[in-house]
TrEMBL record, chain A:
One of its GO terms (cellular component) is membrane. The gene is nuoL. GO terms for biological process: ATP synthesis coupled electron transport; electron transport coupled proton transport. Residues 145-430 form the NADH:quinone oxidoreductase/Mrp antiporter transmembrane domain. This is NADH-quinone oxidoreductase subunit L. Residues 79-128 form the NADH-Ubiquinone oxidoreductase (complex I) chain 5 N-terminal domain. It comes from Virgisporangium aliadipatigenens. One of its GO terms (molecular function) is NADH dehydrogenase activity. It is found in: Endomembrane system; Membrane. The chain crosses the membrane at residues 15-32, 39-60, 95-115, 127-144, 150-169, 190-208, 214-236, 257-275, 287-308, 315-339, 345-363, 384-403, 423-446, 467-491, 511-532, 612-632. Keywords: Membrane, Transmembrane, Transmembrane helix.
Automatic annotation (TrEMBL), chain B:
The lineage of its organism: Bacteria, Bacillati, Actinomycetota, Actinomycetes, Micromonosporales. The chain crosses the membrane at residues 17-36, 48-66, 86-103, 140-157, 193-217, 237-262, 274-295, 307-326, 333-355, 361-381, 402-421, 441-466, 478-500. This is NADH-quinone oxidoreductase subunit N. Its main location: membrane. Its EC number is 7.1.1.-. NDH-1 shuttles electrons from NADH, via FMN and iron-sulfur (Fe-S) centers, to quinones in the respiratory chain. The immediate electron acceptor for the enzyme in this species is believed to be a menaquinone. Couples the redox reaction to proton translocation (for every two electrons transferred, four hydrogen ions are translocated across the cytoplasmic membrane), and thus conserves the redox energy in a proton gradient.
Automatic annotation (TrEMBL), chain C:
It is an enzyme of class 7 (translocase). Residues 203-260 are annotated as: Disordered. GO terms for molecular function: NADH dehydrogenase (ubiquinone) activity; quinone binding. One of its GO terms (cellular component) is plasma membrane. It comes from Virgisporangium aliadipatigenens. This is NADH-quinone oxidoreductase subunit J. Its EC number is 7.1.1.-. The gene is nuoJ. It catalyses: a quinone + NADH + 5 H(+)(in) = a quinol + NAD(+) + 4 H(+)(out). Keywords: Cell membrane, Membrane, NAD, Quinone, Transmembrane, Transmembrane helix. NCBIfam families: PRK06638.1-5 (NF005165). NDH-1 shuttles electrons from NADH, via FMN and iron-sulfur (Fe-S) centers, to quinones in the respiratory chain. Couples the redox reaction to proton translocation (for every two electrons transferred, four hydrogen ions are translocated across the cytoplasmic membrane), and thus conserves the redox energy in a proton gradient.
Length: 633, 516, 260
């Protein structure tokens, strides 16, 4: 299949505005300094709103076209070194279009929300500057027409995310989290960069069309290497095993950041990368197998650790890790499942953003408390937050007809359909994941909004102002409706990009899978509800008149603990331990090695000229000896 | 036969004055500058010297442009005029001109960055007296002009002896300039002494190497050595030991590990404008010499020296990147950064191909502009005691002066090789050339060290933007027109070469052919 | 044809007087070179270096390179080393200069690396030159009619550009010496001759030369202040850097020079 893009014409010629508007706004906010403090946040939110409107017009323009393969807009030639060249250009195709809508649409709502959320923060203008910078970089990432542009955007969102995570730089935890995110992302980025170099080396280009058309000429090993390197990059950015540890720590940033960057958009860039380079992955069986394996492992790890966390944002963060695992699983399966992964990505963008913003609203009303053991009974006090959170929660566990049902079930189904025994394994993993998701999300929801209040003293929970609740409502509407709408329209819309695929389900019928999933979900949710209806065992409760009932409950708890929880807990502990000591340790260890090595080497720089002369002499001996060795060999 | 008969037979070799003009002009202007010191009244010296120096460099640049396209060996084979030579000379002239702007700045500090009388004992009564009122020594101008002339000759020298003389001609003024800081004079003098002693040590290796190469080839001109590599009857060990020692001298000047040890101390101690000159122009000249030696004289030995120099490149990148992590002084940080960057240039050099040559030339120019602008900003961040170079003092600079913090951030990103800066284009070029030449291991090391060295850069960025300005955060002085011009030129070039590098890439591509 | 050629002819094969001279001077040169590094006193070091350079000069002459030999002796031994000695003596460093090495392992490493480097180069040179027949300068010297004309020819033809550029080096060196050593006095710091005279004959100033140490004292030691005619000791007679010390009994004992 030859891929070719038409040149942009008419209104689509102005696609570059999408990037320029938020970029200019960011520049104004960051350069004007204090002068922009009064109105800066409205400029920041407004610019994204304008971008969203622009994105809509472009979207309808593209929809009206007959040939929807996508249009290219060449800006200028960049870097023609020794026969290699990169055209600095934009590509607006159906895939880019839906990402653009997601980024600007959800981004706009979160910007509006942040106006309220950050209202007491002295650094609000700076925050919006970074936020706009992020939007611009993210749009560059999805709109570029070659891998180098993608990389530029990739680094740009990384920078913005790094700046935003350490936004509260006076908190050591935030600064550390920022550094950690940065370091781990460099590992992934290095992989991505090498992949790009590999493209240059083998194909001499990084333009999407030329690379994809050229994949056929490459050897299998090269394509696999390229795919795996791209995957490494994707894993770093999307918080996938084994590079997932930075994502939960990144929750140290302000909540709107968690919602936009670490739930809805940036972390899904890895999925975008894989979907965008699908011809590479289609051409390598091995690379696809690794993608699904990583997706499956991650979704399981995310669920299990999510069950053990008590911090509302961290539970949501692990949930994000796990949901992106689903998306990786889907895009790794290939074929028709690409579209499923992207649908889940979009749906997840809505409900997870909604959940995060809901969590932010709860924190806003509870004086920045994040411990779910200290919540409880909030449903009465923050009605809107409660309802919207409930809808998001129902969406994520996949209750029909909310969006999670339409996006997750088909993924589980597709996983079962993978050829050979791996289909059974992957399907089961995805199924168990659905149950666990239902369990921990129920726990989170119940502990936060129901049961008796377990607040610390002096809490007066209150509903957030309309500027925060309106985005919540809109996102909740999205969580409810988006899944059904997209499940029917998106696969057809993306066909020009991903190609046509026949669905053939041999093993299990759709209804069987749905029934199984529903059973598991209800089991998980019911278990969670039963266990945490009355609060949590970690919270001391005064002995009421119904002591016997409580005791029986306790007995039930213990039984549960022995039968269900203990193995899970042990596994969770082991995983958390592995997470902290093993993977974290390796990353931190690397950083410490560089720092330590630097400190030790630094001591060699004594400042004495005779010691310098000695090291020069040492170098001279080595160089002469090496040259002699060359001679004698 | 007697001596007078011989004298009759001596004929001056043909000197192509047009091709030699760039250097001759500078040497001439340098001599005039010395005379100005002797004749002109004290008050008039600064403007006269400044105008003279600027005109001299401009005239030299004009001569270079006029000579463009020439390909010949002149002065009895001592000087090669060819694409790379003229390109390097042009780069030295342009970068030197920008550095001269920094050097001539006198509004940041009364009397400029240079001490009035370097002979006055540091920290004595007289010294404190002259620090407050003396205007800086104007001898720096002829010294800089001589140094630039020497660098141009170094990049064009076509035999090892001329190269050695050029090496000394451009080094000696630098040793002197290092000792002439107005503030922290003891540190400055220490730096100069270290540079001088170690420079002499390295020169000794270079000279010894010349002797050994002569022992092998019987000649010291590059074409002769090139021919002798194939057909000399002598033992090849002579050639290799000689090459190793010649290389040591060159590696020292280019600040490659393990011959880099002087760099941080000297960069830190020298007056910042001189540091800028060294980081930009000396690097161009040193790599110019290295390129010519490796590409013209020893091209046929490339399979033998490549692994050795490759190991040095890897070591250099590692040392520069790893040591930059723990630096606490901005000048030292930039010094280690320049070491690491020298490693990247060497990666390009070791491609031993046209692409390698072109990409190294591009890298040198791109880095030169960025580093000039970076040191230019360092001269602006100051308090009552002069420049505030400790990193902790830079905390919160973004609040105090967003413009300069933004510029500096941009330059650091360029050093880190972020796309849309010249740093990316340049790194990309050298890595691409190295991969083409099957030197993938160098590129892998380059990518890894790039990742490491991005950390200290970003630490500075984070410190400038995300820390609250403390009591000790110094103000940024309003730059005089000269520094402003230098910083603007440097930053603009960094941006332009990142976005539209094509014209310069074409230029390097066209220039990348050595004459033998 | 003159003595030069005679010398040149000897270069073909090492024998007779040449061999004797070489084997006599070579050990001296090496020993003095080692002595230069080893000596604790800077003046001794310089003198050792002088001997080594003299030996080298003789070797050059022996090798039919009279010009370089003479230049070696005149310029290096005669001018540079003597200047060096003058400076050393003016600065007045004495043997008490601290030679304690403070860097751990510095000396040992330096010795090892130095030996290693020497070993490497020597091995290489031995391999390369072990069985090489020396040709001598006969042929080279005959092209331009002698050693000196030959060098002149090279300097003014092949290396004329490098030779001319050396002038930049020399100018730089001179300017550098001025910068680092010369202090220009401001006009208000300059003292005119009349002021100087007035100050000299001002009250409370002794216009004559200061008495030397030991004058009229009961010891001739430089550490003994002079005794003025009125019997008081003059502090001015002693150099400020010398510590004034108590005389021992033997030194203070009458030496038969006092006024009876």
């Amino acid at each position: 299949m030859e891929i070719e893009f038409a040149a942009a014409e008419g209104w689509l010629h102005n696609v570059w505005l999408l990037i320029a508007v938020p970029l200019v706004s960011a520049a104004i906010l960051l350069l004007l300094g204090k002068r922009a403090d009064k109105w800066g946040h409205w400029l920041g939110a407004g610019s994204v709103g304008v971008t969203f409107v622009l994105a809509l017009t472009f979207f309808f323009q593209l929809r009206g076209m007959d040939e929807r393969e996508g249009v290219e807009l060449s800006l200028f030639e960049y870097l023609p070194v020794a026969g290699l060249k990169v055209d600095f250009g934009l590509l607006y195709d159906p895939l880019a279009a839906i990402f653009t809508l997601l980024i600007t649409g959800v981004g706009f709502l979160i910007h509006v929300y942040a106006v309220g959320y950050m209202s007491h923060d002295p650094g609000r203008r700076r925050f919006f500057g970074f936020f706009n910078l992020f939007v611009a970089a993210m749009l560059l990432l999805v709109l570029g027409n070659n891998f180098v542009m993608l990389y530029i955007g990739w680094e740009g969102v990384g920078l913005a995310s790094y700046l935003l995570i350490s936004f509260y730089f006076d908190r050591p935890a935030a600064a550390t989290a920022g550094k950690k995110a940065f370091l781990i992302n460099r590992v992934g980025d290095a992989g991505f960069a090498i992949a790009i170099f590999l493209m240059f080396a083998t194909l001499g280009t990084t333009q999407y069309d030329e690379v994809f058309n050229g994949v056929g000429q490459l050897t299998g090993a090269t394509v696999t290497a390229m795919g795996l390197l791209l995957l490494l990059g994707a894993c770093g950015k999307s918080g996938q095993f084994p590079l997932h540890t930075w994502l939960p720590d990144a929750m140290e940033g302000p909540t709107p950041v968690s919602a936009l960057i670490h739930a809805a958009t940036m972390v899904t860039a890895g999925v975008y990368l894989i979907a965008r380079s699908h011809p590479v992955f289609d051409a390598s069986e091995t690379a696809q197998a690794v993608v699904v394996t990583i997706g499956a492992i991650t979704l399981l790890i995310g669920c299990i650790i999510g069950c053990a966390k008590d911090d509302i944002k961290r539970v949501l963060a692990y949930s994000t890790v796990s949901q992106i695992g689903y998306m990786f699983l889907a895009v790794g399966l290939g074929g028709a499942a690409y579209a499923l992964g992207l649908i889940h990505l979009l749906a997840h963008g809505f409900f997870k953003a909604g959940l995060f913003l809901g969590a932010g609203s709860v924190m806003h009303g509870m004086q920045d408390q994040t411990d779910i053991r200290r919540f409880g009974g909030l449903a009465k006090h923050m009605r809107i937050t409660w309802i919207t959170f409930l809808l998001g929660y129902l969406a994520i566990i996949g209750l029909p007809p909310l969006s999670g049902f339409f996006s997750k079930d088909p993924i589980i189904h597709s996983a079962f359909e993978r050829h050979g025994w791996s289909g059974w394994v992957l399907g089961s993993v995805a199924l168990i994941g659905a149950g666990l998701t239902a369990f921990y999300m129920t726990r989170l929801y119940v502990l936060t909004f129901h049961g008796k209040p377990r607040w610390t003293e002096g809490q007066h929970p209150h509903e957030s102002p309309p500027v925060m609740t309106i985005p919540l409502i809109l996102l909740a509407v999205g969580s409810v409706a988006a899944g059904g709408l997209m499940a029917t329209s998106v696969p057809g819309w993306l066909e020009p990009v991903l190609g046509e695929h026949e669905e053939h389900h041999a093993r299990l019928s759709e209804w069987t899978v749905t029934a199984m999933t529903m059973a598991v979900v209800i089991l998980g949710a019911g278990l969670g509800f039963a266990l945490f209806r009355r609060g949590t065992a970690l919270q001391e409760q005064p002995a009421g008149p119904l002591v016997t009932a409580a005791r029986r409950n306790l007995y039930f708890d213990t039984l549960n603990e022995v039968v269900f929880e203990l193995p899970g807990k042990l596994l969770t502990r082991a995983l958390v331990f592995l997470d902290n000591r093993g993977i974290d340790g390796v990353v931190n260890g690397l950083a410490a090695t560089v720092g330590g090595g630097s400190g030790r080497l630094r001591r060699a720089q004594t400042g004495f000229v005779r010691s310098y002369a000695l090291s020069i002499l040492g170098g001279a001996v080595l160089v002469v000896a090496a040259m002699m060795a060359v001679t004698l060999s | 036969m007697t001596t007078d008969i011989a004298a009759e037979t001596l004929k001056l070799p043909s000197l192509d004055y047009a091709a030699l003009a760039p250097m001759l002009i500078l040497f001439g202007v340098g001599c005039v500058g010395v005379l100005v010191e002797a004749i002109a009244p004290k008050k008039a010296r600064f403007p006269v010297q400044l105008v003279l120096a600027v005109l001299g460099i401009a005239a030299s640049l004009t001569a270079i442009v006029l000579a463009a396209g020439t390909e010949k060996v002149t002065a009895a084979g001592a000087v090669a005029v060819d694409g790379p030579g003229l390109f390097l000379q042009g780069s030295i002239a342009v970068l030197g001109l920008v550095a001269l702007l920094l050097i001539s700045e006198r509004s940041l500090e009364r009397g400029g960055a240079f001490v009035a009388q370097a002979a006055v004992t540091a920290n004595s009564e007289a010294d404190r007296d002259q620090a407050t009122r003396g205007s800086g020594a104007t001898e720096v101008y002829p010294l800089i002009i001589f140094s630039l002339g020497g660098m141009m000759l170094f990049a064009a020298a076509n035999d090892l002896l001329t190269m050695f003389v050029a090496l000394e001609v451009f080094s000696l003024p630098l040793y002197l300039l290092c000792a002439m800081a107005r503030r922290r004079r003891l540190l400055s003098q220490e730096a100069a002494l270290k540079y001088f002693l170690l420079g002499a040590f390295a020169s000794a290796f270079f000279l010894f190497g010349i002797a050994l190469v002569y022992g092998y080839a019987g000649r010291v001109d590059f074409a002769g050595i090139h021919a002798a590599v194939l057909d000399s009857p002598n033992d090849i060990a002579l050639l290799y030991i000689g090459l190793a020692m010649v290389a040591i001298g060159l590696l020292f000047k280019a600040a490659l590990a393990p011959f880099h040890v002087w760099t941080p101390d000297v960069y830190q101690g020298a007056p910042t404008p001189v540091t800028a000159l060294m980081a930009a122009c000396t690097k161009v000249a040193a790599f110019g010499g290295l390129l010519r030696v490796l590409y013209v004289a020893f091209e046929r030995s490339q399979w033998d020296y490549r692994p050795v120099l490759g190991a040095i490149a890897v070591l250099t990148m590692l040392v520069g990147a790893v040591l930059a992590v723990t630096q606490t002084d901005i000048k030292r940080l930039l010094a280690y950064s320049s070491i690491a960057n020298a490693g990247y240039v060497l990666v390009g050099v070791l491609a031993i191909s046209k692409a390698g040559l072109a990409s190294s030339l591009f890298y040198l120019v791109a880095y030169g502009f960025s580093v000039l602008a970076a040191f230019g900003i360092v001269t602006l961040v100051r308090d009552a005691d002069g420049e505030a170079t400790h990193l902790s003092r830079w905390a919160g600079l973004g609040r105090r002066s967003p413009l300069y913090a933004t510029l500096f951030t941009f330059l650091l990103l360029a050093f880190a090789g972020i796309p849309l800066t010249s740093g990316f284009t340049a790194k990309f070029g050298v890595f691409a050339a190295a991969i083409e030449a099957d030197q993938t291991w160098l590129v892998i090391a380059g990518v890894i060290t790039s990742a490491i060295i991005a950390f200290p850069y970003l630490r500075v960025v984070v410190m400038m933007w995300l820390s609250e300005p403390g009591e000790s955060t110094p103000a940024v002085s309003l730059p005089g027109a000269l520094t402003a011009a230098a910083v603007t030129i440097g930053a603009a070039a960094t941006l332009l070469l990142g976005i539209v590098p094509q014209p310069l890439l074409d230029m390097t591509e066209n220039a990348a052919h050595f004459v033998r | 044809m003159n003595g030069l050629v005679t010398l040149a002819a000897a270069a073909g094969e090492v024998k007779g007087g040449e061999a004797a001279t070489f084997y006599l001077l070579a050990p001296i040169a090496v020993i003095c070179a080692i002595g230069m590094v080893w000596a604790r006193n800077a003046v001794h070091s310089a003198l050792f270096l002088v001997v080594t350079m003299l030996c080298l000069g003789v070797f050059y002459v022996l090798q039919a390179g009279p010009f370089i030999g003479m230049v070696q002796i005149i310029v290096y031994t005669g001018a540079i080393m003597m200047l060096f000695l003058f400076v050393l003596m003016l600065v007045g460093r004495d043997a008490s200069d601290s030679l304690i090495e403070t860097l751990r392992g510095q000396r040992m490493t330096a010795v090892l690396l130095g030996l290693g480097f020497a070993g490497l180069v020597a091995t290489g040179l031995y391999r390369a030159l072990g069985n090489l027949d020396s040709v001598g300068l006969t042929q080279a010297n005959s092209v331009h009619g002698g050693n000196v004309p030959g060098i002149a020819a090279l300097l003014f033809t092949k290396y004329v550009f490098a030779f001319e550029v050396t002038s930049a080096l020399l100018i730089t060196a001179a300017v550098g010496a001025m910068i680092l050593a010369h202090i220009e006095k401001r006009p208000d710091q300059k003292i005119a001759q009349p002021e100087r005279m007035r100050a000299r004959f001002a009250p409370d100033n002794y216009p004559g030369p200061k008495p030397g140490p030991g004058v009229f004292a009961n010891s001739t030691s430089v550490a003994t202040p002079a005794v003025l005619p009125d019997g008081t000791q003059s502090e001015r007679s002693m150099s400020k850097i010398l510590p004034q010390r108590e005389l021992t009994a033997a030194e203070a004992a009458p030496k038969g020079t006092e006024h009876q």
